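Reopening this one. Same input as before:
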Amino acid sequence: MVIMNGIMYMASFIFYNIQVLPNETAEEIGVKGYKKIFSLLKEKNNEELKSGNHLSYHFKVGKNSYFGPYEFFSEQGGVNGNFIKYNDSDDVTDLLTDKVLFSKSKKNAAVSGKKKIPFVFDAKTHILAIDQSAAPSQEYDKLLEILMYYINPIVKNLFPEYTLTINLLSLPSALDEVFANAISYKNVEVSVFAPNGDDAEDILEEMRKSKMQKLQLSGSSGDSSMISIPNFLKKILKSAQTHGKIKLRYRVQLQNSNETKLMTYDSEKSPLKLNLRHNKSDKDDRGFLRGCLRKIREFCELKNDEIQGD
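Same output, byte for byte:
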């Protein structure tokens, strides 16, 4: 992320699929339901800030570093805004107002090193795009844990008959590269979550209709190696790129050698990314993020078509 004169000039987005899956006969929560979750997150955060309890509420990501919600902009079909990373210290900037405080005494609402982390949430596709700097040390599974920490209590209270799932969207070309280069496979582990909405195909559609929320599979060759991945499993792996997670151990031929090397593919370390830059028409953060929402919708549709078309 690049910020100049207080305005975001570029963001490098990664993507999480946030799903609130109905149990048994419950209906899907729809756009209004997903937007309500973020509305309640905003209310909860404001309450904690005003009461001075934000250090207890915000997620600790370092010795004196915290990560929490910050700004929310309600848009048609979505919610945009900023999370924030900051340090608890004697350098004083008020977290609620951005007002510089001149007192050097420690105050509950005073922070330093404040850094905005932009996010864009499409409530129709329930895809959250968030700047990759949100992930502590690029540990994307840690960011998933943080998102669950903030969202799951709201879902449990607001939608008690539903289950929250969150997964990272992985880069399609990274898995394609594995298929292209692997000469054998040692083992594979895959988890797939059922989809919300009407955009599912094949396996995902079957899961949605049957109310199966999660599918977990593992396969191995024992002491030997699999010469290929069965076609039915490849289809499941493709679905997991947008609705789950994958781990593969495979062998590749070393260049100019008869030797092979055992490699590991982990979808949670190969995120789908999109870099977006500020336009001249973007007068503030909200304008920039509104444009990002439009571009991200187009980008995600294109990537989904690529996966389904393989």
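So the earlier flakiness isn't reproducible anymore. For the record, The chain has two domains: 2-168+271-304, 172-269.
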